[in-house]
Amino acid sequence: MKVFTTTPLFFLALATLLFHTGFTQAQERLPEERDYKVRPIRLGVKIGFPNIVGGNVEYVTPLLNDRLSVSLDYSTIESDWFLSEEESGNTETTDLSYSYIEGGLNYYIFKAGKGLYAGVSYGQMKFEGQTDVNENGMNGTGYIDYNHSSFNVKLGAKLGGLFYFRPEIGYSFSSLPKTIDYQVRYPDGTTERDIYDFEEELASADIIFKGLIANIGFGFSF
């Protein structure tokens, strides 16, 4: 599987800069009085789209009175984890993988480090693998290698203390296409282009192709 671009490194550098800047600012001011403890490190799981299922880490910086956080999501899924050739009901062999990585910033609107927040993020998904193809009596192998990037806006809420629950909705400005082109190779050396239909092959709801982001997260804060 190919490695993602330097986007994660950018967010790591940004998080480091924010941490040092925020720590300096925090030393120069008195903390806001609050009746709860801000637990800045959050480790959890997100389930939904486009994450499918994957890990999430968030750090609440001291910036803006502990209201600005840095967040990173990562998911990777292999098709054979869920579906075998016998279970698929046909003789085709499909070996596909899905990866998603996303980094962004969240701003907690009413309370420091908890409650309702608005966020912006940049995500990259990768869909790759191969599948058997039979066209006009010829058996071939289709090779799928598709990358998709998007800028996103979100609205969510971090509910709880040590253990938290996090519902989140949002919108992607670059929605997922319903079909993609991929290359088919035949044993005689010839190749052709074919179309992979996400909606048909993955039995996907039409709403995910309109830019909707929706997930539920849960985890622990420290």
TrEMBL record:
Superkingdom of the organism of origin: Bacteria
Signal sequence coordinates: 1-26
UniProtKB keywords: Signal
Annotated protein name in UniProt: Outer membrane protein beta-barrel domain-containing protein
Organism per entry: Salinimicrobium tongyeongense
